[in-house]
Each structure stands twice: as structure tokens, then as C-alpha cells.
Amino acid sequence: MKNSHRKKQDYTIHLLSLLLLLLLQLTVVFPSLAKEITETSLGEKIFQTHCAGCHPNGSNIIRRGKNLKLKALKRYGYDSPEAIIQIVTQGKNNMSAFGNRLTEDEIKAVAEYVLTQAKNNWKS
Ligand code: HEC
After folding, report:
1. Atom of ligand 1 nearest to the CA of 62
2. What integer is the mean pLDDT of 51-72?
3. Which ligand 1 atom sits closest to the C-alpha of 110?
4. Helix 104-119 / helix 2-46 crossing angle, nearest 10 deg
5. Ligand 1: residues whose CB is within 6 Å?
6. What's residue 1's pLDDT?
7. What band does 21 get if pLDDT is binned at 50, 70 and 90?
8. The dihedral of CA 75, 79, 84, 86: what is its sign?
9. Residue 92, helix vs strand vs coil
10. Is 21 within the bounds of a domain?
11. Full-prediction pTM beyond 0.85?
12. CB atoms < 10 A from the CB of 40, how many?
């Protein structure tokens, strides 16, 4: 009788520690997941609002060759976040500058979105 009681207690403690461990893991996994999701959607939102007019689906309706596909980005030296941040901030020829319309964080997010999309061949 006494013995079986102890066994039950042991089992409960074991279960509790497992639950605690699970909780701990969830708090570690979820914030980073949430951060990833919000960052992607911020960049995508900015792109749809400010860039898609001239660059629908990564193209360029004004200067066709200067599109946002990986090949063109590489050819013209825009295959890094820094270079994209620079052209978005200062503009170039027929592309307007966004430095006074978007925050630094927004420009960074949209630059990362462009690069991710280019690497995905604008498939998603
Ligand atoms: C008014 C139309 C227009 C808008 C809006 C626009 N762009 Fe552009 N974009 C251009 C043109 C035109 C070029 C080519 C500039 C040149 O080299 O003469 C260009 C070039 C680029 C390039 C370099 C591509 C290459 O292959 O050389 C990147 C990167 C880029 N744009 C990103 C963006 C992003 C990100 C946004 C939104 C924040 C944006 N553009 C908004 C017209 C636009």
C-alpha cells in the first residue's frame, strides 16, 4: 500500500518535470519563430506597397534588364543587403529614393525580402 503510493508520487514528479522541460523548450522556440514570421511579412508588405508597382514579381517594368532576379542582381552588384539598402535609400535614375519615406528597419526588411525572393527565383 505504502509502496504503491510512493510510486504514484514518483510518476507525478516525473511527469511534472517533463512538462516543465517542454514549456522551457517552447519559450525558446516560439519567440524566434515569431520573429522570423513578422520580419518576412514586414519586408513583403513594404515590397507590395512601395516596390511592386515597378517591380511586379521581381521584374522591372521601366528597365527590363535591371530586374530583381538573382542573375541581374549579381551582374549589377546588388546581390547583398548593403547594396540593396543603398539603392533603396538613395534611388538611381528612374528609381526614386526611399530614404525619407521608409525607416532604416523597413529598408533593411525589404532588402532582405528581395534577396530571399531572388534566391527562391520569385516563386513564393
Ligand atoms: C518608379 C519605379 C520604381 C520603384 C517604385 C522602385 N524601383 Fe527599383 N528600380 C527601378 C529602376 C528604373 C531601376 C533601374 C535603375 C538603373 O540602374 O538605372 C531599379 C533598380 C532596382 C534595383 C537594382 C536591380 C538591378 O538589377 O540592377 C533594386 C535592387 C531595386 N530597384 C529595388 C527596389 C526596391 C526594394 C523598391 C521598393 C522599396 C524599388 N526598387 C522601387 C524602378 C523602381
Report:
1. 12
2. 98
3. 35
4. 100
5. 50-51, 53-55, 60, 62-63, 66-68, 72-73, 76, 78, 84, 87-88, 92-96, 98, 110, 114
6. 54
7. confident
8. negative
9. strand
10. no
11. no
12. 14
Average per-residue pLDDT in the chain? 90
Give domain status of residue 2, yes or no: no
Closest residue to atom 27 of ligand 1, CA basis: 66
Task: Tell whether 68 is covered by a domain.
Answer: yes
Would you state the pLDDT for residue 38? 63
Domain count, the chain: 1
44 CA from centroid of ligand 1 (Å):
15
Q: Does residue 69 form part of some domain? A: yes
Range of the domain at 110: 35-119
> Which of 42, 50, 54, 80 to mutate to test ligand 1, by most ligand atoms within 8 A of the CB atom?
54
What is the CATH classification number for the domain harbouring 105? Answer: 1.10.760.10
pLDDT of residue 11: 86
CA 96/CA 87 separation, integer angstroms: 9
Write out the three cell numbers for 8: 504514484
pLDDT exceeds cutoff 80 at 90: yes
